[in-house]
Structure formats: structure tokens, C-alpha cells
Amino acid sequence: MATLRIPTPMRGFTGNQAEVAAPGATVGEVLKNLDARHPGIGGRVFDERGAVRRYVNVFLNDEDIRALNGLDTPVKDADRITLIPAMAGG
């Protein structure tokens, strides 16, 4: 199982846990399993087409998945996925 780091604004879905585990062979599978275990978080991560929302950054072991294979990026048990909502401001 991969470990996911959950940002503070999304922790309401995970019982205020900063880290949770979810199984999956790819980043996409892990994120879908995260939503199955913690209903509602998927709506904050995925858009209506099933793509990662543009204001959410997803990192696999400090690498942006957009620079890898996106949601199809393979995941190993010891991997860490970090969700980071983009900051807005001006």
C-alpha cells in the first residue's frame, strides 16, 4: 500500500488524519481507492472527466506525476503520494 499525505483542507474526509494508506498499482488506482475508503475526497481531487483537477498537484516521491505518466504512473508499496492544492492569491 502507498502512503498518502493529505493536506489540511482535505483532512475532513480522512478523519483529520495527515497520512492514510491505500492500495493500487498506479497513482490513479491509489487515488480511487482513497476515495472508496474516504468518500468525498475524490471530488476534491478529480474533475468530472476523472482527471486530476488543475488546482491539485499530485507528487509521487517528490516527483510531479505530470512529469511522469500521470495517473498511470506505477506505484510500489513503499511509495509516498502527496496531494498539494495550489495556492491562490495576489
Automatic annotation (TrEMBL):
<dbReference type="Pfam" id="PF02597">
    <property type="entry name" value="ThiS"/>
</dbReference>
<protein>
    <submittedName>
        <fullName>ThiS family protein</fullName>
    </submittedName>
</protein>
<dbReference type="InterPro" id="IPR003749">
    <property type="entry name" value="ThiS/MoaD-like"/>
</dbReference>
<dbReference type="InterPro" id="IPR016155">
    <property type="entry name" value="Mopterin_synth/thiamin_S_b"/>
</dbReference>
<dbReference type="InterPro" id="IPR052045">
    <property type="entry name" value="Sulfur_Carrier/Prot_Modifier"/>
</dbReference>
<dbReference type="InterPro" id="IPR054834">
    <property type="entry name" value="SAMP1_3"/>
</dbReference>
<dbReference type="InterPro" id="IPR012675">
    <property type="entry name" value="Beta-grasp_dom_sf"/>
</dbReference>
